[in-house]
């Protein structure tokens, strides 16, 4: 039996007190039925939707200038799983956790897996870290890792990624996410072609070490900390790498890893066409890689991404379903609350995308009726699907109002009494 970090009776009492839920659901169901949608089929698709929580997301993030630790922050990966379990218990949409090594390395990996099982949590893609030097590490990544000019540094980075595969296999994971900070800050600092070739050669060795049923997700980022040229700078570079590495390699789209005003949904459509869309790191941004809560700045963009995904799914365009994970840095809010709302934002965008009349939209597009086609999309986006999302949570044993239940539980205050308070620090990029 799973361990509950929030009293289930509190969840049940809160749900019973949600007096308007049934009326709101009935009203929305009537509207959707008049539009030709089967509400139970919509709920079934929403019930199957899942997104992974990043282990590092339950801690307080920071900026280059400062980090302001919050009360009751996780002190270790077991604490992180406890917090992730609260998110899943209340929201019922985040059944897996994505770990980051070596941040989350433990001596007894079997005990970590067992703790996850006790909390009703599984493990999603594992993430390697060659963008930081670790204690006792013989070679520095200051000038790169998988693309470094030194074979010894590349060998070290490759060995770390292979060790991540070993740890992930022990946990039951099926994928490795690789993001590198490699690049240059000065023109002439690096041979741009040679650096990419070294990266591909290193990745070949990592892919060779993957179990048969594993995938590797290639994450790209257009800048930071390499400000002149990044080795894997955009979806084109990631696609070239994935194509060179074979069937086990696919691209990972982080919504914050693009230049402002980039048409991310079009990138998604191109990666789908190339059969190389592996998954997502969902967040939001205003200027760059801000790692803000998903849907908090531009929910319409999130909807448009899911519009492409639903369209592709309905067409049977995915060789494997894409993986979904949140990737956020919570500087001002309680991370548990932010992750609850971000997971809901992803489910909301998915639900709204399910409300697009695909047959009608195809006809309007064929007739080049730009105004009506756009209005059809907006009508789906503007529909308040909150009652559907709440009903999914209720049916799966979660909370109709998860943030309210979380606050009423006193969980943060309780863990603050047993977890050692972290000291304030300088730059806090996570």
The top level CATH class name: Alpha Beta
Fraction of residues in helices?
40-55%
Total separate domains: 1
- pLDDT < 50 stretches: none
Instruction: Count the DSSP helices.
Output: 16
- Distance between the ends: 34 Å
Average of pLDDT? 96
CATH superfamily: Divalent-metal-dependent TIM barrel enzymes
| Percent in strands | 5-15%
- Reported by name, the CATH topology is TIM Barrel
Tell me which CATH architecture applies here: Alpha-Beta Barrel
Instruction: List the strand order in the largest sheet.
Output: 4-5-7-9-10-11
Structural commentary:
- Helix 5 (109-118) links the parallel strand 2 (96-98) and strand 3 (122-123).
- The protein has helices at 8-17, 21-34, 39-48, 77-91, 109-118, 151-171, 192-208, 235-245, 264-273, 299-314, 335-354, 358-366, 370-382, 386-395, 402-409, 411-418, and strands spanning 53-54, 96-98, 122-123, 126-127, 175-178, 183-184, 215-219, 229-230, 249-254, 277-282, 323-326.
- The strands form three sheets. The protein has a six-stranded parallel sheet with strand order 4-5-7-9-10-11.
- The protein has one domain: Alpha-Beta Barrel (TIM Barrel).
- The longest helix has 21 residues, at 151-171.
- It contains 16 helices and eleven strands.
- The chain is an alpha/beta fold and 430 residues long.
- Helix 4 crosses helix 11.
């Amino acid at each position: 039996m799973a361990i509950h970090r929030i009293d289930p009776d509190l969840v049940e009492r809160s749900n019973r007190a949600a007096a308007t839920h049934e009326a709101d659901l009935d009203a929305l169901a009537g509207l959707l039925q008049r539009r030709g949608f089967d509400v139970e089929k919509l709920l079934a698709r929403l019930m199957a939707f899942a997104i992974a929580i990043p282990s590092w997301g339950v801690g307080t993030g920071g900026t280059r200038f400062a980090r302001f630790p919050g009360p009751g922050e996780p002190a270790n990966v077991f604490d992180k799983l406890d917090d992730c379990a609260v998110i899943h218990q209340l929201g019922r949409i985040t059944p897996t956790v994505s770990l980051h090594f070596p941040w989350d390395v433990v001596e007894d990996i079997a005990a970590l897996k067992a703790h996850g099982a006790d909390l009703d949590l599984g493990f999603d893609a594992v993430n390697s870290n060659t963008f930081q030097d670790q204690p006792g590490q013989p070679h520095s990544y200051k000038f790169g890792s998988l693309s470094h000019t030194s074979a010894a540094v590349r060998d070290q980075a490759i060995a770390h990624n292979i060790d991540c595969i070993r740890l992930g296999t022990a946990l039951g994971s099926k994928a490795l996410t690789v993001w590198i900070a490699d690049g240059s800050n000065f023109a002439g600092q690096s041979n741009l072609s040679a650096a990419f070739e070294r990266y591909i050669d290193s990745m070949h060795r990592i892919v060779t070490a993957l179990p048969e049923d594993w995938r590797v997700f290639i994450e790209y980022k257009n800048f930071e900390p390499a400000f002149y040229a990044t080795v894997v700078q955009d979806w084109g570079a990631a696609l070239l790498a994935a194509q060179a590495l074979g069937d086990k390699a696919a691209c990972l789209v982080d919504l914050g890893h693009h230049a402002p005003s980039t048409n991310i949904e079009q990138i998604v459509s191109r990666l789908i066409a190339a059969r190389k869309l592996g998954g997502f790191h969902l967040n939001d941004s205003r200027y760059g890689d801000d790692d803000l809560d998903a849907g908090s700045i531009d929910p319409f963009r999130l909807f448009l991404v899911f519009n492409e995904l639903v369209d592709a799914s309905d067409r049977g365009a995915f060789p494997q379903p894409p993986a979904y994970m949140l990737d956020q840095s919570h500087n001002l809010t309680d991370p548990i609350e932010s992750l609850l709302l971000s997971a809901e934002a992803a489910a909301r965008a998915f639900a709204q995308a399910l409300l697009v009349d695909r047959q009608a939209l195809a006809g309007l597009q064929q007739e080049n009726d730009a105004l009506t086609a756009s209005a059809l999309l907006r009508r789906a986006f503007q529909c308040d699907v909150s009652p559907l999302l709440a009903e999914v949570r209720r049916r799966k044993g979660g909370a109709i109002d998860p943030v309210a239940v979380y606050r009423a539980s006193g969980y943060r205050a309780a863990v603050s009494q047993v977890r050692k308070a972290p000291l304030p620090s300088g730059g806090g990029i996570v």
